[in-house]
Write a structure and sequence with these properties.
The chain folds into three domains: 10-69, no CATH class; 85-267 and 335-344, Vaccinia Virus protein VP39 (Rossmann fold), CATH 3.40.50.150; 270-323, no CATH class. It has 14 helices and eleven strands. It has helices at residues 5-13, 71-78, 87-95, 98-106, 127-135, 149-155, 167-170, 193-203, 220-224, 243-252, 270-282, 297-309, 311-325, 329-332; strands at 35-42, 51-57, 63-65, 117-121, 140-145, 162-164, 178-184, 204-215, 239-240, 255-261, 337-344. Strands 6-5-4-7-8-11-10 form a seven-stranded mixed β-sheet, with helices on both faces. The chain has a four-stranded antiparallel β-sheet with strand order 1-2-3-9, with no helix packed on it. The protein is globular and about 60 Å long.
């Protein structure tokens, strides 16, 4: 952290406002100019400096970051999250989600029980592909990502081939190569979701399938929990597409939506995460290289004391998430994600 601190200090001293593009006056999905502010928040996970706004289009319901991060801003806020300082922690977190990954792979079985080639876009360290191979042992899984995690996934044998770079840029060389292309919690990170969908259409062979899972901006939790709703994940998540919008766009691109799921992709962590984000926000900061100096012993002790005091609330949130809300999540309208399976014509 001491080695990284001077670089972060220089970035912050130059002003984080420079990491934002000019504010849009129209919806990037439909072009409507009727916009309202949906949310104002800060970086609640890494606690890097900056303030962020999500706007909602009154015409189509699309929610998007406005003003949006520039390329330099994305580099600054992604730095040390999935790689660098965050690589080990995130790798362990993703690696422990085998049941979730198997559920995602099984959602394809009613439509293609033995796809030959599968491309996972936004694969990260390839943990989904490794788990999905247990469900589909005869399928060859490739991964695509713009971080060096995909190269790690290839070295570890989690993917047969790792494509590093922008999906739209790589799509022409991947044209009609895959029976299935999956995008699990990927579209919300993209600067241009429509361009990503067109790239997917290019990579999926005719008769093949596109499998998409994204946060659901129409979840009641999004309103009830406000800035403490984890899927907002600012400033990384740039777009939140309502399910009707995605269905319509896929139809325009020549896909037929064969399945729409809300209960299955729900991740029962909303209340636990909200409590944790609030506690972490209230507590003194833990040491990070974007702080001007390492917190002293007193601040570290105060942080530990507050987090320990919050343990009962964390336990209560976990129990409510898993046993009270999860069985009724879709019926209550609080599912935090939806999944779509679409067949290319």
């Amino acid at each position: 952290m001491a080695a990284l601190r001077p670089g972060y200090r220089a970035d912050i001293a130059a002003g984080v406002e420079r990491f934002l593009e000019p504010r849009r006056t129209s919806c990037p999905w439909c072009g409507c100019e009727a916009l309202t502010t949906r949310l104002r928040t800060t970086d609640l996970l890494q606690h890097k400096p900056g303030r962020f706004v999500l706007d909602r289009c009154e015409g189509c319901g699309h929610v998007f970051q406005n003003p949006r991060l520039s390329a330099e801003g994305l580099e600054f806020y992604y730095r040390d999250f999935y790689d660098g300082l965050g690589e080990k922690k995130l790798g362990e977190t993703f690696g422990a989600r085998t049941k979730t990954y198997r559920n995602r792979a099984e959602s394809m079985l009613p439509y293609d029980r033995a796809p030959k080639a599968w491309l996972d876009v936004g694969t990260g360290h390839g943990h989904f592909c490794a788990a999905a191979r247990e469900v589909l042992p005869d399928t060859v899984f490739d991964g695509l990502d713009f971080t060096d995690g995909v190269e790690l996934a290839e070295r570890e044998g989690r993917v047969a081939h790792g494509h590093r770079g922008s999906f739209p840029d790589l799509a022409p060389e991947l044209a009609a190569r895959y029976d299935v292309v999956s995008m699990f919690h990927y579209l919300e990170h993209s600067t241009d979701p429509d361009r990503e969908l067109r790239a997917a259409r290019e990579a999926v062979r005719p008769g093949g399938h596109l499998l998409i899972e994204v946060p659901d901006p129409e979840s009641r939790y999004a309103r009830l929990l406000g800035r403490w709703w984890l899927p907002w994940l600012q400033p990384q998540h740039l777009h939140f597409v309502p399910v009707a919008n995605l269905r319509d766009r896929l139809t325009e691109l020549g896909f037929t939506v064969v399945a729409e799921q809300h209960a299955e992709p729900h991740d029962p962590v909303d209340l636990l995460a909200a409590v944790w984000l609030a506690l972490d926000h209230a507590a003194p900061r833990e040491d990070t290289p974007w702080l001007p100096a390492r917190p002293g012993a007193l601040r570290r002790a105060l942080r530990a004391a507050l987090l320990i005091a919050g343990v009962p609330a964390l336990i209560a949130g976990t129990l409510l998430d898993r046993f009270a809300v999860r069985p009724l999540a879709h019926r209550l309208g609080v599912s935090n994600a939806y999944r779509i399976v679409a067949r290319r014509g």
